[in-house]
């Protein structure tokens, strides 16, 4: 559901003929026990007194990052998803393992292996700047939430208020990642079940999938759809023939370049909009999980509704991001910490 972003080095390897081929004539993702823990005193004005310039400080970093490395946008939004779905929105994805200890943290997990460095760098830079003005006050978890919102807006999506007050988590274990993240070939039933375990609805699933309006995936996440879908020895019949041909040129069955990436949204890949949903109706979904949302009768009407009304999508997306941002929130020194360096626990 949320496979890979891409690094700046692989940016030049994108197959730009996708954009020409499908360019329209006009543009119209913790533990289940944490899922029920709601906002836990989160507030838009949480730092109004202790760090009133917080959002402007983070914005200065995200704007520069987006200009210098546009991949920072989708990469940081993805990082936010991966943080919230494992242990809750507590910055545990940002922890780096200590050399020589043999202890693997979330960042080391196989499912997180291709999280783009630009996302971590965006948060690191923002944290350094914030610490210089408001030392020991703002959590890394809150900075990640704010940065993700900023990048949504910078890419053309909605600007929405972010509730703050999260503390950073004290636990980060690679072993807790696999069962808490969607797969690129998850069924709709599996997705609904996973989202429900986080306190999110089927509607939230469809709306948050709209984050694939921007971002890219490596071939490994969809190559089975091109050559041997479901063990049939045939391509997935739910792929438009033009897209299938283009994808095969970029992603051979064997021996392809592992750095090649392809946009989730083949029509407006660099703009956060609702074209993603129209693509699903036109059989232009990249991942099996994306296309499945249109094929399943439970989620199809939601896909169609989001595809028809961009403003409705923006409103629903903002609400779903706030809801997801409340998963497994940590509060107080018993359950959390306020890291000075986002990659290191305080003790």
TrEMBL record:
**Which amino acids does the record list as binding Ca(2+) 1?**
83, 86, 88, 90, 92, 106
Q: Which UniProt keywords apply?
A: Calcium, Disulfide bond, Heme, Hydrogen peroxide, Iron, Metal-binding, Oxidoreductase, Peroxidase, Secreted, Signal
Protein's GO biological process: hydrogen peroxide catabolic process; response to oxidative stress
- EC number(s) for this protein? 1.11.1.7
Q: Which residues bind substrate?
A: 182
Q: Where does heme b bind?
A: 212
Q: Which GO terms describe its molecular function?
A: heme binding; lactoperoxidase activity; metal ion binding
Task: Say if the entry is tagged with keyword Disulfide bond.
Answer: yes
- Cofactor binding note: Binds 1 heme b (iron(II)-protoporphyrin IX) group per subunit. Binds 2 calcium ions per subunit.
Cofactor(s) required, per the database record:
heme b; Ca(2+)
Q: Which reaction does it catalyse?
A: 2 a phenolic donor + H2O2 = 2 a phenolic radical donor + 2 H2O
Q: Give the signal peptide, or none.
A: 1-28
Give the UniProt subcellular location, in the record's own words.
Answer: Secreted
Q: Which domain of life is it from?
A: Eukaryota
Q: Family assignment?
A: Belongs to the peroxidase family. Classical plant (class III) peroxidase subfamily.
What the protein does? Removal of H(2)O(2), oxidation of toxic reductants, biosynthesis and degradation of lignin, suberization, auxin catabolism, response to environmental stresses such as wounding, pathogen attack and oxidative stress. These functions might be dependent on each isozyme/isoform in each plant tissue.
* Name under which the protein is recorded: Peroxidase
Species per Swiss-Prot/TrEMBL record: Vitis rotundifolia (Muscadine grape)
């Amino acid at each position: 559901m949320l496979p890979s972003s891409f690094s700046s080095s692989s940016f030049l390897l994108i197959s730009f003929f996708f954009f020409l081929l499908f360019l329209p004539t006009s543009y119209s993702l913790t533990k289940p026990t944490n899922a029920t823990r709601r906002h836990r005193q989160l507030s838009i004005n949480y730092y109004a007194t202790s760090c009133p310039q917080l959002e402007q400080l983070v914005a200065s970093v995200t704007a520069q990052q987006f200009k210098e490395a546009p991949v920072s946008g989708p990469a940081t939004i993805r990082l936010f998803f991966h943080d919230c779905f494992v242990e809750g929105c507590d910055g545990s994805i940002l922890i780096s393992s200590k050399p020589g200890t043999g202890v693997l943290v979330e960042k080391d997990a196989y499912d997180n292996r291709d999280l783009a460095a630009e996302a971590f760098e965006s948060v690191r830079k923002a944290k350094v700047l914030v610490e210089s003005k408001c030392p020991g006050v703002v959590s890394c978890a809150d900075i990640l939430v704010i940065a993700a919102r900023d990048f949504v807006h910078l890419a053309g999506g909605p600007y929405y208020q972010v509730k703050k007050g999260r503390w950073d988590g004290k636990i980060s274990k690679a072993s807790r990642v696999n069962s808490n993240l969607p797969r690129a070939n998850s069924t709709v039933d599996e997705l609904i079940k996973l989202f429900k375990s986080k306190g999110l609805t089927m509607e939230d699933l469809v709306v948050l999938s709209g984050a694939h309006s921007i971002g890219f995936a490596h071939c490994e996440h969809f190559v089975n759809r091109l050559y041997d879908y479901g063990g049939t020895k045939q391509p997935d019949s739910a792929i438009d023939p033009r897209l299938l041909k283009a994808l095969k040129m970029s992603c051979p069955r064997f021996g392809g370049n592992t750095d090649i990436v392809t946009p989730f949204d083949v029509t407006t890949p660099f703009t956060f909009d609702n074209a993603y949903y129209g693509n699903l109706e036109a059989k232009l979904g990249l991942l099996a999980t994306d296309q499945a949302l249109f094929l399943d009768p439970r989620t199809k009407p939601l896909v169609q509704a989001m595809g028809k009304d961009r403003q409705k999508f923006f409103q629903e997306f903002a609400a779903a991001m706030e809801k997801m941002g409340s998963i497994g929130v940590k509060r107080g020194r018993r359950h959390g910490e306020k890291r000075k360096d986002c990659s290191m626990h305080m003790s």
